Structure formats: C-alpha cells, structure tokens
C-alpha cells in the first residue's frame, strides 16, 4: 500500500465545538502539526440563511445563527503556529469571492505557510449566500469554472490576461505568486457530472467526492477522471482525491475510531490519496484534540503499513 497517502482531518470551524473561543483553534492546529497529521480541512459559509432544511446531505449541523469563521483567515492564524501540516478548505464557496481577490488571498496565504495551502472549492448549496453577495445564483456554475481558470492564470503568468463569460482582465500583475509550482492546488468538490469533470480536467488538481458517495462509486468516478485527464494529455497519476472514511460505531452506539480506521485500506484502494475523517464525532471539544490526533495517526500508520 502506498506510503504517500495522507491522513486528512476535518476541523469544525462552525457551531460551538471550540466553546466560543476561536483563538483556541490555533492550539488545535499546532496539536495536529505536532502529531504528524498530514492535512487539516476547514469548511465555509459566508452568511447563513434561515432555510437550513434545504441542505441535501442529512441534518444541517448548526442553526443559522451559529458562528462560521471565515476559513482562509482562520488558516492564516494556524499557519503562523505550524510548520508542516497542510492547510485546506473543503469546500470554499469560490464564486462568492472575486477571482482576482481570491487569487491574491490564496497566494498570500501560500507564501505565509511556506507552500502548504490547498483549496477545495465548489458552488455551495445555499441561494441566500449568493443573494447577500449580489451574485446571480443561476450563474454559479459558470462563475466557478471561470474563477478557477482565472486564478490559475494569475498564479502562473505575470502579467496575466484572461477572457471568459464572467471574468476578464488584461495585463494584470498579481504578486506575490504562490510558493507551489503551478499555483495553489485546486480540489474540485461535488458530484462528478459533466461540468465538474470538465473543471477538473481544465483547472483541477484533485477531487472531493460528494458526501455520502459509496466507496465503490468513488472508485468508478476516480477511474473516469483519470481517463479524462489522460485523454486531455494530463498525468492521471497526479490526481489527488479526498476519500471520506465511512464512520463506524461501537456496540454502545458511539463512533469508534479503530473500527472506522479499519476501512482506510478500502478507501485507498478506491483511489483516495487523502483519507479523511471529521474530528468532532470522536472528541467533544478542543481539549481532546491532542489525544485524538495521536491515536488517529497511530491507527492510520498501522493500516497503511499493512500490519
């Protein structure tokens, strides 16, 4: 089994997990770094509307009035107290941020972190965010496609020019550029429909499967993406995939880390390059994070080594 597969942990930058003190998230990030966790992943909502029942993937985790700190700002704070853990979003609602500003913000954070940023991006599910930002909800897919391609241009060309239906600029100087060659890696989130497949082929470095997708279906879709990349002259072996671990409970009905981690081999075999699980189902708050990270690292290494 490949030793290049990463252990990816989702941190709940929402609700009440950190007991209202978001500065404490820097301690959680440092604990992940110290424990050898490969990636930490934050989520995004710019504003929340009242209709959380429109969330399609189960019960929404918070009421609309709950805290949702901006993830890139929070990752910048974590970057200042860490040195190796990769800093990711999963997902960032990219169309809510203008392409030029997103490119500059991400490049700055990549510089500050020493080249550790990864952007998981998608359109999001909530119309109210687009309304609040004055952005056409019905045009969100086109805007995502153009925003990602424009960011790639701004990260690689100096000056950069770009023309599309929704984003246009000529001789734009966006500096500093990211540390990482080719720019900040873009992991496209969502169902592998025709449009998302085209985005991955054009601008993506990775894929974040939609919540609830089975491991078998993930394997099928990974094969489809790799074929499309090869057909486009890109290296299919370079594709990155965030593979969620199916969560398993013990006999008492509590989520069990060791039983859950036992499924990592199957997820890796399906094409995951980053095996992902959320911290909050295993520990109630930040005080339990160091012990959780140490246990998760040990359990993951055991699976990967084939022991």
Give a brief rundown of this model.
The chain has 307 residues and is an alpha/beta fold.
Question: Care to describe what's here?
Answer:
The chain is α/β, with parallel strands linked by helices and 307 residues long. The chain has one domain (6-305): Alpha-Beta Barrel (TIM Barrel). 37% of the residues lie in helices and 16% in strands. The chain has helices at 25-35, 71-79, 99-113, 127-133, 140-156, 194-203, 215-231, 257-261, 264-269, 289-305; strands at residues 6-10, 39-42, 86-93, 117-122, 160-163, 168-172, 186-189, 206-208, 240-244, 274-278. The strands form 2 sheets. The chain has an 8-stranded parallel β-barrel, surrounded by 5 helices. A two-stranded antiparallel ribbon has the order 5-6. Helix 1 packs across helix 2 and helix 5 (140-156) packs parallel to helix 6 (194-203). The model has no long low-confidence stretch (mean pLDDT 95).
What is the fold's blueprint, element by element?
Elements: E1 6-10, H1 25-35, E2 39-42, H2 71-79, E3 86-93, H3 99-113, E4 117-122, H4 127-133, H5 140-156, E5 160-163, E6 168-172, E7 186-189, H6 194-203, E8 206-208, H7 215-231, E9 240-244, H8 257-261, H9 264-269, E10 274-278, H10 289-305
Parallel strand pairs: 1-2, 1-10, 2-3, 3-4, 4-7, 7-8, 8-9, 9-10
Antiparallel strand pairs: 5-6
